[in-house]
Amino acid sequence: MRKSNLSALVTSIFCLLFVSCSSAESIATYPPGWESWQEVKQVMIYPAASELPQDASLFTQEVFRSFNWLNNGEGSSVSIRVHPNKREQYLGGGPFSDGATMVAFAQDAEIIFVIEHIAGQAIYGSYDTAGQDISHRHPELKPESCHRCHTSYREHCSHGVCSMTSGHGK
Fold first, then answer.
1. What angle in degrees, to the nearest 10, is found between the helix axes of 143-152 and 58-67?
2. Peptide bond into 47 cis (omega under 30)
3. What is d(CA 51, CA 5) in angstroms, rounded to the nearest whole number?
4. What is the pLDDT along the chain (170 residues), one digit of tens a residue?
5. What does the alpha-carbon distance between residue 24 and residue 73 come to, in Å, rounded to a whole number?
6. What secondary structure does DSSP assign to 40-51, as a single string?
7. CA dihedral (66, 70, 76, 82) positive or negative
8. Is the overall model pTM greater than 0.90, yes or no?
9. Are 123 and 27 in contact (CB under 8 A)?
10. How many angstroms separate the CA atoms of 61 and 121, rounded?
11. ∠ CA(69), CA(26), CA(110), 5° rounding?
């Protein structure tokens, strides 16, 4: 099969997966063992009662609006962890090879946001700490919501990964 045909086939399969799963199910798979992946960043999702600075970027406002409901509106610390095989790709700003790429573990809310790559495209999932798909629990946990935000803010997100833009590593 020619490379262009293979690329078209992979893109078609990705689109079918995205459309068929976008109703409520995570597309990215739960990555067992993510707890042992290296933490590259620690961030905070601020409580709903927080006031953003007047000069907060649109990206910051979107993140706040999308996730301030976590942990009953109390916010959550978030640990960003990168798959061991993707660390160099992360440090280089992507692109990413196929497979699990990273997780963002909202510790206080006990939610694991997963990014996986297939054929160069980022796909998303939301899980609890037992590995159960929870994307149906809130509109912002659905893969299409993740995809919309991660592709809308390309100046902050590289190859579908938004945490890379403000410093790498610890």
1. 170
2. no
3. 50
4. 565 555 554 554 554 454 444 445 987 889 999 999 999 998 888 888 888 888 888 877 877 777 777 788 888 888 999 999 999 998 888 899 999 999 989 898 898 989 898 998 888 888 999 999 978 876 766 656 655 655 655 666 666 667 644 433 33
5. 22
6. EEEEEEPPTT--
7. negative
8. no
9. yes
10. 25
11. 40
Q: Report the DSSP pairing between strands 38-45 and 76-82.
A: antiparallel
Q: How far apart are CA 3 and CA 22, in angstroms?
A: 28
Q: Quote the tokens at residue 84.
A: 């061991």
Residue bearing tokens 């440090």 = 91
Report the phi/psi class of residue 169: left, alpha or beta, with left for phi > 0 and alpha for psi in -120 to 50: left
Q: Which CA distances in Å does 157 have to 12, 40, 50, 54, 146?
A: 23, 16, 24, 22, 12
The span from the CA of 75 to the CA of 101, in Å, is 24
CB 38 within 8 A of CB 87: yes
Give the separation between CA 111 and CA 108, rounded to whole angstroms: 8
Structure tokens at 134: 């929870």
Half-sphere exposure of 47 (CA within 13 A, CB side): 4
